[in-house]
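USER: My hope is that you can spare some time for a protein that puzzles me. I am handing you a single protein, as its sequence and its fold in token form. Walk me, if you will, through where the backbone shape changes along the chain. The protein I mean follows directly.
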Amino acid sequence: MHRGKGMKFVGDSRVPANRRPNIPKDYSEFPGKTEAFWPNFLLKEWLVGAVFLIGFLSLTVAHNPPLEKIADPTDAGYIPLPDWYFLFLYQLLKYDFASGPYNVIGAFVIPGIAFGALLLAPFLDRGPERRPAKRPIATGLMLLGVAATIFLTWESVAYHDWEHQREQGKIVAEAEVDTEAAGYLIYQEQGCINCHGENLEGGAAAPPLVGSAHTPEEIADIAVNGIGSMPADLFQGTDEELQELAAFVSEISNE
């Protein structure tokens, strides 16, 4: 090769020298099938979202949220209940094959398979057909998942002990309790404090004594003979101690 021969400089650029304005695509060739994302489609999305937001805010104003008593980490008898959208998983953990020694299966394996299949659905079903009747496997699995979710949610709601749920979370009035009183010392010694709480506020195993409005005679009879799920013969003190305890609890329960 001689100097100056056999070498050529070629200019090639696919970027236009003069930039054109950002003109949106002409959708007139597909009438009624496509529309511009901005502002047409996005405006509709905002309007629908605004309707749901206003409806949600109206519900929160019209109906007060159901509040429970202040959380007590020392209350081992409290049975928590998840929100409604997790009730199907809560119910799943009640079955023998997904609880106890198999708790890992109910908590991780089954939900992991279900949600993993949902995430992988676009990759597993790559066919061009979009009609549900033409996609029997994907449609069947989705209907199975929806049916299982509805059934488990219904089972959880239908067979849950809602009366116990309301009692354990009920907000009760706090009363001034004289922890130095003779009746309170008997209340401690007889083990009443284990179920009814330090301030007679109750717990998961026993109702609150504050606001129960029992007479001393009724309280003495309950302490000896029991009531409901409370067994008899729990009180092991003398008659004088029983009367002292009954008078103390009656004074607190009628405040």
Notes: The chain has a mean pLDDT of 80. The chain has nine helices and no strands.
